[in-house]
Specification:
alpha/beta, Rossmann fold, 2 domains, six-stranded parallel β-sheet, four-stranded parallel β-sheet, globular, phosphatase activity, Phospholysine phosphohistidine inorganic pyrophosphate phosphatase, inorganic diphosphate phosphatase activity, cytoplasm, metal ion binding
């Protein structure tokens, strides 16, 4: 079943940058491109972040990053030259841990080894759900099959599958690679269950980021390279959504997109920040 996102207001394409009081930014494909050797900052993005830091407009990095802790993620961005701390980042792992505690869930974890310490306070004995994150090369057949059999061991009505993100793919170096959402969809199909996304474009995840910004949702803009999770997901909640032509953006798919009309397109984060600061 397709999910269609619609713009909540009929606005001129350039009006997205007017009256903005808060900014959410995707990271991979917007600030930097990931890669086998650590990736590289996208041209102009380091200065763009610094200009936002010194402006009156608050921002948060709203990422589905689930291969490392917030502290390590912030350290990696700092190494690339960004003036970023872990407090600037909203990502799914802490939200997922909170949900597991609230719902008294015991997960079978299909996550990257580097984030396992984040789940240290959670019991994994006799699992009653499966939690997935971006495992990169750890998405092996045996790992997927173990998660599959864990779900099958539950009665159909009790099968709970959580995915820390719903993306189909992202850019890694020069290549596009499958994201966690694609693997979660495979388990969803095989086990006749419905995955719950703890990350973009989930409403609760976006609501958390908006609360941290301290602004009304209609006064916020989401800037990202994923036209579905970033742009469409934000628009569905009443935010403005802006597509960057960096990262995994592909003109043949994204401009125009068959289902989603961004409030604006920009060549990169630097252009977006130029427009924001000159109109607010």
């Amino acid at each position: 079943m397709k999910i269609y996102f619609f713009r909540t207001k009929n606005q001129p394409i350039m009006s997205w940058c007017e009256g903005v009081k808060g900014v959410l930014l995707d990271v991979t494909g917007v600030l930097y491109n990931s890669g086998p050797t650590g990736g590289a900052a996208i041209e102009g993005s380091i200065d763009a972040i610094q200009r936002l830091k010194t402006s009156h407009i608050p921002f948060k990095l709203c990422s589905n990053e689930s291969t490392e802790t917030r502290a390590n993620f912030a350290a990696k961005l700092t190494k690339h030259g960004f003036n970023i701390t872990s407090d600037d980042i909203v990502c799914p792992v802490p939200a997922m841990v909170d949900l597991l505690k609230q719902e008294n869930l015991r997960p079978h974890l299909l996550v990257h080894p580097d984030v396992l310490p984040e789940f240290a306070s959670i019991s994994t004995e006799n699992p009653n759900c499966v939690v997935m994150g971006d495992c990169n090369t750890h998405f092996t057949y045996s790992a997927m099959n173990a998660a599959f059999n864990t779900l099958l061991s539950m009665s159909p009505k009790d099968r709970k599958l959580y995915s820390m993100g719903g993306g189909k793919y992202y850019k890694d170096g020069d290549d596009l690679v499958l994201d966690v959402g694609a693997y979660a969809k495979a388990l969803e199909y095989a086990c006749d269950c419905k995955m719950v996304v703890c990350g973009k474009p989930n409403k609760l995840f976006y609501d958390q980021a908006i609360r941290l910004l301290g602004v009304n949702i209609e006064d916020c803009v989401m800037i990202g390279d994923d036209i579905i999770s970033d742009v469409g997901g934000a628009q569905a909640l009443g935010m403005k959504g802006v597509q960057v032509r960096t990262g995994k953006y592909r003109a043949v798919f994204d401009e125009p997109h068959s289902e989603i009309t961004p409030d604006g397109y920009v060549d990169n984060l630097a252009e977006a920040v130029d427009l924001l600061l000159s109109n607010n």
